[in-house]
Write a structure and sequence with these properties.
274 residues; alpha/beta; Rossmann fold; two-stranded parallel sheet; disordered N terminus
Amino acid sequence: MAQKDTEAVIDIAEDDRDEATGSGDTGFRRNTGQRYASFLDGLHEKVGFDWYMEIGCRAGRTFAPVRANTIAVDPFFKAEHNIIGDKRRLFVFQETSDDFFASGFLDQMQIRLGFSFLDGMHLFEFLLRDFMNTEANSEAGGVIAMHDCVPFNERMLTRDLDNLPRGPWTGDVWKLIPILRKYRPEVKLTVLSCRPTGLVLVSNLSPGNTVLNEAYDEIIANWRDVNLVDYGVARFYEAFELTDPAEFAEADYPVFAKVRRDPAAVAAPVKVTK
């Protein structure tokens, strides 16, 4: 079976699973757009980058098709297929994102990130640190994608790692949307209705900005025990407009204008021996 056919079967199976864990909770909405992995595939097919980073990779499914120089970070990989593909450079770090950033690798290599996909631990303090560290190492025109910030039921919101729900788990990373709205109102949030749990593109970055770092302890103290239902599901949705990922793609991925490269211009590796 061809890879695309296999992925289509996987999508159908995942859709069936998501339906079984649907948005029966009052006020929650289902995301009805293209699946996030398919959206990322289409993006990387049309848009190239000098450097791409992914946190939370496990099997490598979402970065395998990428042709850009790639950095992949996960504390426990389970890659069982070709993940380097047409990349010229692939750096794989089997460690936590906190340890990766603390290593200083990006500074040592003088790497500035064009696009990053954050899909690590689904607790808001982890995603907040990943965002801060990623922005600090990004190009000014770079884009950061945050996964799982638009939950569609209450069960998936748990912070209890010993009692995770069947199906999608978002934890409480939804909090990054109101946190960024309050502390970094100048960044642009494009919230895509990607199935199953949304995809937030953050642009208009300021790599030298230290507001979040300085307010980190305050943010953790104020948000640690906040529950989305108590916060208000309607209030949460009022903070943003959902954008259809297919329409965003048809508009030629506008937030990437400052960092996009022609993927066809990326030199593919050449076999020099039998």
